[in-house]
Amino acid sequence: MAEISNSDKPVLVLLHGWGVNQGVWHTLLNDISPKVSVLCLDIPGFGLAQQLPSPYDFDAVLAVLATQIPANSLVCGWSLGGLLAIALAERYPLKVKELGLIAATPCFLRQAGWPGMKEVVMQQFALSLQRDLSLTVSRFLAIQAMGSATAKSDAAALKQAIAAYPQASSVALSAGLAFLTNQDLRQSFAALSQPVVGCFGALDSLVPLGAIAELQRLQPGGQFNVLTKASHAPFISHRVEFLNWLNGWLTAAG
Fold it and tell me: CATH no. for residue 244?
């Protein structure tokens, strides 16, 4: 858990995505608005959060994260972290003053009338995870960067960022895929009373561009920004544009 602490400032909580850890944020920290204190959390089973709740399920993971989040935080999650952030905003509303999503939706799997990932893609990941954990994570990192002009270097940057921390638990990796496959939080998302913002990549293969219109329908007051040349990891591939979005949100929230 990395933190820049100042009790007089609002707290920005950053939640990473599947297969990685808090290391993905660390190159951004010096350029995030000084108006906030930054708290980078590891999802249980990832990075430094090696102690697993038992059973390892969605509710238990949320409960662990909620204990680490100060009241009235600005909670921002990428991909799987965004899914968890939505659930935290609903179930622990005193913890989440505003919600930020990075390439994340309340429902990652394709449904009737809802753009998302094909179930077969998730199943392929689950099978390959059982065969070769390290290779599966590497492939997933490559997909994170797919579509951007600097995809190879983006994927390499992601790998380097997470390498400084312990390898993710196989239990947490499998469960994380299950969360992305099974959780449908669209009703929860629509019912949120907190302000919602988001940053997305138009070339994202995991969160299709069509999903943004659906998010807007569920949260008419939401402010969703799309980077036209970015993919699933805009904070890696389009660092300047991403920081402009993030700091703009933090200034408005302050």
Answer: 3.40.50.1820
